[in-house]
Amino acid sequence: DWKSTNFNRIALVNFLLQNSQNPEYLEIGCDTNELFNSIPAINKTGVDPFMGGNIRKTSDDFFKENQKIFDVVFIDGLHSYEQVRKDVINSISSISGNGWIALHDMLPRNWKEQHTPILNESCWLGDVWKVAFEIMQTKGLDFKIISIDYGVGIIKVKDNKAKLMDLRKELKDAKFNYYF
């Protein structure tokens, strides 16, 4: 029961931002702005093609034009492995030296929550978990998953030139039992 935990993604992002002076915050996939509106940063960018945030674009289009460096990036977009993978790659090159990248929906509790395409609209995390295998094997990245709020992965980028390990052939068709 994720809602019974007092610590959630809002508390985590605010914790990650607390040591930055005038932090730059980026959120990919804002939806109802639950997280975005809870971040007390002046310089915040919310990217969502449909609703929420303050930039109406896809993350791919945003990163093509982006010149900013961010202190914290929170990725909660399309819930698909391929898209989250691209967002992680783009975020690595856009993160400050002391910055953090966080990924939502890393801990599906059963095969229905992670099934792609979506089966259960009330709780769908997608196959975001696949990118964890690549992040863990990439030199220059420290990675942990915090057991809160459907699982939040946090990446500490030690090298902005880090190249995400490419396991797409192995992971493309991986199912829940591979993760489990």
Description:
The protein has 180 residues and is of the alpha/beta class. It has seven helices and six strands. It has a six-stranded mixed beta sheet with strand order 2-1-3-4-6-5, with helices on both faces. The longest helix is centred in the middle third of the chain and has 12 residues.
Strand % is 15-25%
Spatial order of the strands in the main sheet?
2-1-3-4-6-5
Major β-sheet profile: 6 strands, mixed
Average pLDDT, to the nearest integer?
92
Helix content: 25-40%
**Uncertain stretches:** none
Give a brief rundown of this model.
This protein is α/β, with parallel strands linked by helices and 180 residues long.
Write out key terms for the chains shown:
180 residues, 7 helices, alpha/beta
